[in-house]
């Protein structure tokens, strides 16, 4: 804790998932005062999302891989002096006079409480995770179509299923985990539809050999699919959803190497729900608003460019986990701890065991190499836009169709997602382009290489006007409040 209410925290960690927890406990263990902010009322992030105690789940760990690692982090957090600020929706990070940062948040279950919060700190660790990438197709707005990660979140946190007979589709290793979880929970999963394949991993034998845990994890999911008689179809995609008030069936079509639908190969599969996702997009809006440098990942998303100790291009701002490129929970924990140790050295000059830092860097580099191989293997190819009919909604918020975007490109000269946005309003709705940004960029490229949509937004999450209009003066601390939080 800071010495007094007027003193800043040493470190604010934004995000209480794998990376954030590891970073917070590592920094606190080396003497830093740490504030841990997260929008959720519980720690664990998306990967270790679990039911609220009121649901009375007897074994919340049953639907999780490597739960003991999370349980160990949670015990360390409970024994530490880290100040946990749950239900805090961070919408901006700003630079104050001198070397201090201000973390601005809205409180409450949905960020709509009247009390805005400002936490003053000397350094920031961003561990904000990622969100799902969606590629549209005819019928994707029907009730019963959910994100693949969303289906898993429903199961983990609410103990509910999106349907009884669920097709899982898209691209990436998350599909295997989602399908095995749904099947284990009692859903009938007729098929997992993978648009890419797994042959690409064979091009990286050294990376595979260096990451045996990943192979073992894949084997566990594969065995679960066999046990539940779930069919795996590669080089295929759901190209249409059928139904009136709800999903009743999907059409699955073979794809060529460029993800173009192969004529005459469409087959219907009856189902009442579709869980679909095409990988994850790093959530980096807080960093890009501050001018942090980015890099384009192998699967066409933007991630933060980080140095060997997880620091961004802006001094005093570290990042860990999916913000630097999607790689999974084990990688996130290593990066979070490394960032926490680096912050401790910078801020307090505390000696850190050099052997531990070297071990974390080796582990990070090994797993990051696997993440890059994974991204290459499952990267969407340009031909997927052949799934879209002109009346397919691309931007659901503003009801912008693929036909309108194509018209903006062919008739009005749009060549990038920003121009498409100005001409059609695609990306101007509630989600601010998180759902449609990738699709709009691909359509704007006209079959060429699509530039990732810029992740620069003035606010990282929706924020009520009252939070912007309220005075932001220091008020001191109370026993039930986290000093030095100003409201």
UniProtKB/TrEMBL annotation:
Region (Disordered): 448-487
Short name of any one Pfam family annotated for the protein: Pyr_redox_2
Keyword list, A-Z: Oxidoreductase
Domain spans labelled FAD/NAD(P)-binding: 9-335
Tagged with keyword Oxidoreductase: yes
Residues in BFD-like [2Fe-2S]-binding domain copies: 393-440
Alphabetized InterPro entries for the sequence: BFD-like_2Fe2S-bd_dom, BFD-like_2Fe2S-bd_dom_sf, FAD/NAD-bd_sf, FAD/NAD-binding_dom, Metab_Enz_Cyan_OpOx_G3PDH, Opine_Oxase_asu/HCN_bsu
Organism superkingdom: Bacteria
Molecular-function annotations in GO: oxidoreductase activity
The keyword Oxidoreductase is annotated on this UniProt entry: yes
Name of this protein: FAD-dependent oxidoreductase
Organism, as annotated: Streptomyces nigrescens
Lineage: Bacteria, Bacillati, Actinomycetota, Actinomycetes, Kitasatosporales
